[in-house]
Amino acid sequence: MSRLEAKKPSLCKSEPLTSDTVRATLSVLKGVLTSCYGPSGRLKQLHNGLGGYVCTTSQSSALLSNLSVTHPALKILTTSVQNHVSCFSDCGLFTAILCCNLIENAQKTDLTPTTVIKLNKHLLSLCTNYLKSEACGCRIPVDFSSTQILLCLVRSILRSKPACMLIRKEVDHISALILRAFLLTIPENTEDHIILGKSIIVPLKGQKVTDSTVLPGILIEMSEVQLMRMLPIKKSSALKVALFCTSLSGDFSDTGEGTLVVSYRMSLENAALDQLLNLGRQLISDHVDLVLCQKVIHPSLKQFLSIHHVIAIDRVGVALMEPLSKVTGTQPIGSIGSISPSSYGIVKELCTAKFGSKHFFHLIPNEATICSLLLCNRNDTAWDELKLTCQTALHVLQLTIKEPWALLGGGCTETHLAAFIRYKARNEPESILTDDGCTQAELQLVAEAFCSALLSLAGSLEHDGGEIVTDIKYGHFWSIQGDCPSVVNWPDLLSRCGCGLYSSQEELSWSFLRSSCHPFAPQSCLPHETVGPDSNLTLDCLTAKLSGLQVAVETANLILDLSYVIEDKN
Amino acid sequence: MAAAGSVKVALQVVEVLETIVSRCVGPEGRQVLCTKPTGEVMLSRDGGRLLGALHIEHPIARIVLTCVSSHLKKTGDGAKTFIIFLCHLLRGLHAISEKEKNSLISDNFQTHERHWKNCCQWKCISQALLMFQTQILDCIMDQYLSRHFLSIFSSSAKERTLCRSSLELLLEAYFCGRVGRNNHRFISQLMCDYFFKCMTCTSETEVFELVDDCFIELNVGVTGLPVSDSRIIDGLLLHRDFSIYCPVDGDIRMVIVTEIIQPLFSTSGSEFILSSEAQFQTSQFWIMERTKAIMKHLHSQNVKLLLSSVKQPDLVIYYAGLSGISVVECLSSEEVSLIQRIIGISPFVLPEASSWYEISNTALVKFCKPFILRSKRYVHLGLISTCTFIPHCIVLCGPVQGLVEQHESALHGAFKMLRQLFKDLDLNYVIQASDQNDTSSPLIHKYSRESSQLPEISNHSIQRPYQDIVVKNGGELEKTQAYLKVYSNLVISSRGLETHIPCSTLKLTPTNTFQIDDTLKCLSPEKNRIIDDYELELLVDNNLTGNPTTENTRIEISYENLQVTKIDRTGSKLPVRYKSLDLCTSQSYHSSSVPAGSVLPVGGNFEILLHYYLLNYAKTCQPSEEAMVSTLIANALLGIPKILFKAKKVNYSFPQMYLRTLHALQTNQLMVSSQEGLESVIGKYQLLTSVLQCLTKILTIDLVINIKRQPQKIYDQDSEDEL
């Protein structure tokens, strides 16, 4: 029966961005995002009136997935940021705020969207070319022979997520753990291309953060009762492992499309159980010590195996199958008949462990790139935030290994970039305006809008009423405490720039962020002692930030380009 | 409720559509955001999608939309131009009717009657439009416009080679109107690269067909990355992960299966009786051994890759892994058919239990490895093509799904457009020049013919001296059981009406009545065997000797030209020329074609050229409907360049450009185009005919009856589902 439904005609709105409600919504969204940005960002508590748990966060991924945005143009913005985050994990707020700033600033100029879009694109390629070039003054090479820069990178990420509720000591502990976990996933003997392993994050809530630890191999959680029932592992040498992906419960699937007639008095259950026991006998005769099964093992088979001192662990789940097969070197067995001896694997050691209130089996491999990161935090929400942060950090480290550069963080890249664009637009406009159609005056206006979007992004790192200045030599970001007495000569209060690369010992001249200054070419020479052993730089992932910049400008262009919104109201 | 269908109503409706569409047209056009009830957000500049998203209820608008969608289905381009052009045509018609109303202000018809009178008038106009489309347009295209055509082929004497720079210009202009402003250059480069990578030396059309048919399988969308990360990948990406992957070196053979390899207990319609536990266990054992044996057999044949369109049981996967065979499961039927089209193998059939013959349905694969895009895994296959298409895939990146989809549909449309462009378009028409009367206007008659059908027929139209083939056509014509088509030169030029007189037995006694025995020339089937199978068009010039002014007497003898059409079963047509010596009226049948790959510079060049020649043509016509229709169309054509040039600076404004072009045409200079880029002539031509057909459809409606009842069971399904 077909169902007829009257289609309502769609609603068509022209020039969506000019309406006041959209502008207001955009500025509200921007306000929410801006206030979360940076180490001193404010936290947001998200709770659903209909129930569910309360989430305290300042991360874009958690924030945007829970916010429901109604206007389609803003929906584009949020989905675009979410897509970016799912690709790179990092720089979500950066992308979102920059995009909002660009849209707002473009509307303030009285140019047509066409011109703004065209010039934004030119400015974007100017930025990306600069950030990728050797002459770039706001990126530093990552040296993999020492952990210093990598630690700085991880620490910067952890510090920028205040909802993890970590104190300084805990930040140091966790960042060291993350780096260790990452290093454990790098295979030792590398061939032409590296295949990174995996770090599995194991939750342990309600414990001290400093109880967190990294273990090589895999932890499989089990109940205490199960553990008690297990016999003590007597063997100290390597254990032979069989890993099943098929069910060992004696169920009977795949009979085909026809009918199956079972005669009276015949018991299929017995037949199936016979088969399972035969399998058990084969496993024992093959001297298997450990049987792992993705699905369920029949209790009789379990019993049979434990009589013969074989450890059986079932219901492992599909998520652990790939790491398990990697750790043990087995091939998942899909047959309950004959098993090829080549599908067995080896585990160096198996032990039980207790962390907090939880009991685990710990499979220690000979040599594998799988490790378990046992992550503790005091409560659920803080743990969730910490977990997301750890995943971000691990991902950023992976990205950095592909492109071994890091950008200066703490707002310095943004101010430096803005100074660079301003200088280029003023002094070499013809290098930016490669094709026809736009005048230099238009370029000045759009470049100013672009730069102020970057600067106000950097400015939103400051939440405590402080003032922000840039030096006019390097174009870095310096912030002055807001509560200082005004009589003091304020340059004396500055000690280090946002990223921590420069100190105010040098003879620098200053300019307030909000006031416009004469364009200058930011110097790009990096000090020699960039990374001392005790240096504490704030760094950002180059790959993520570069892509975030591109996505922000592209999305802003897309939204500025909208001439109609057609809403299907069905 | 019934509403009068009139030009005014149609104009109002189409004007609304035009205001929406005109902002997205051309290089300056902007994006439209559509939301679906599911919450999905779609970005588009594609006219067809946009109109569809509006969910319009107005009946006339729905007629227009149906026409647009059927046009799009054919050509993949021109929905926005369609609306604009239609709107201008209606506007022109409306202006004419307003003028007439003013002149007839004193008439004292009742309104109802006037409505019917109007409808009658619209019907006449629609006939005239139809006649223009079928008869005049081709002539203008061939005789005047064709001299301006450029070709995207670099023309060497014999073989045509596709010129890359021209193709780039063409695609850039196409994507200008389809994707966001910043991306069109990049996307057109991508498409160009893709095309040249996929194409072997001379396989353009086949490549277009294959890519057009299987475009969904040939691209992968990735969200969250900037658009500039889009790229082309050698080989084929399957949207699946390996069920099991065994890395291998050396040559890889693969097979395709469409059924479950493991034997099952029972197939559908059969019954399997289990009578004992032992039997059950042996049959399970047999199944296992059998699966193992099949895998061993495949392994012995050097098969390393198994592509399956169904889900295989764990057992199969396990034994495949043991034999070092990688498995990809759950391929869609489209993917399987694409692979089969590329490598030309049929699915592997499971051998009978006893016979282990050599497997013939295997194909060599260059490589097969996992491919990771944004943490999603794909299967990357390096197929060795046996057809002219070299497999490549496009990875389309974009920050949001809507943008990726927009690029995907634009690329698909571009392939459709190219597919059309690479075909010849035939133009057929008859020029009848009569220098007997004061009517200097040629009557052009077009024989409609399938454009792809026998394009070289026209070369056979042989003109012979009339003395050779003098036919006593009394006996001949009596056999003709078809219909008699009677055209009057005068009727057509003044009214544009066609009269069909069905006639079962045709009795012409020309020798007695009309005395044309010595002036008739024709080809008869018996005399000319070569053209035996073709239909003969017998154009009989019946001339009343010495009495050319008897038009107002009885209608049977007032026709100056009598055309007899005999339809043969084959359905093909062969034109035959006649010449009446007395009248010196010549009817020449012309058949030419717009060659494949004809293009014109973008920016309204086609429209302005056609406008110019139509006006010239209208001047030569008598002040009749024909001239009126030509002028109407000519003026409506200018609407498109007007919109295109709206945002331009002073020097490139529309009037400037228009005057420059006209001046160039009048002085026979070369046209100077202000813009780079090319567009397909065939696409434009098809658009024009589609719009004219749509307009005739609208004009012939006099009443719209609104039915508030559940639709009947029998309804036209694709009329509403298309958009």
Automatic annotation (TrEMBL), chain A:
One of its GO terms (molecular function) is unfolded protein binding. SUPFAM superfamilies: GroEL apical domain-like (SSF52029), GroEL equatorial domain-like (SSF48592). This is Molecular chaperone MKKS. Keywords: ATP-binding, Chaperone, Cytoplasm, Cytoskeleton, Nucleotide-binding, Nucleus. The keyword Nucleotide-binding applies. The keyword Nucleus applies. GO terms for cellular component: centrosome; cytosol; kinociliary basal body; motile cilium; nucleus. Probable molecular chaperone that assists the folding of proteins upon ATP hydrolysis. Plays a role in the assembly of BBSome, a complex involved in ciliogenesis regulating transports vesicles to the cilia. May play a role in protein processing in limb, cardiac and reproductive system development. May play a role in cytokinesis. InterPro entries: Cpn60/GroEL/TCP-1 (IPR002423), GroEL-like_apical_dom_sf (IPR027409), GROEL-like_equatorial_sf (IPR027413), MKKS (IPR028790), TCP-1-like_intermed_sf (IPR027410). GO terms for biological process: artery smooth muscle contraction; brain morphogenesis; cartilage development; cerebral cortex development; chaperone-mediated protein complex assembly; detection of mechanical stimulus involved in sensory perception of sound; face development; fat cell differentiation. Belongs to the TCP-1 chaperonin family. Component of a complex composed at least of MKKS, BBS10, BBS12, TCP1, CCT2, CCT3, CCT4, CCT5 and CCT8. Interacts with STUB1. Interacts with BBS2 (via coiled coil domain). Interacts with CCDC28B. Interacts with BBS12. Interacts with SMARCC1, a component of the SWI/SNF complexes; the interaction takes place predominantly in the cytoplasm and may modulate SMARCC1 location. Interacts with DLEC1. It is found in: Cytoplasm, Cytoskeleton, Microtubule organizing center, Centrosome; Cytoplasm, Cytosol; Nucleus.
From TrEMBL, chain B:
InterPro entries: BBS10 (IPR042619), Cpn60/GroEL/TCP-1 (IPR002423), GROEL-like_equatorial_sf (IPR027413). This is Bardet-Biedl syndrome 10. It comes from the Eukaryota. One of its GO terms (biological process) is response to endoplasmic reticulum stress. It holds the Pfam family Cpn60_TCP1. It comes from Ictidomys tridecemlineatus (Thirteen-lined ground squirrel). GO terms for molecular function: ATP binding; RNA polymerase II-specific DNA-binding transcription factor binding. The lineage of its organism: Eukaryota, Metazoa, Chordata, Craniata, Vertebrata.
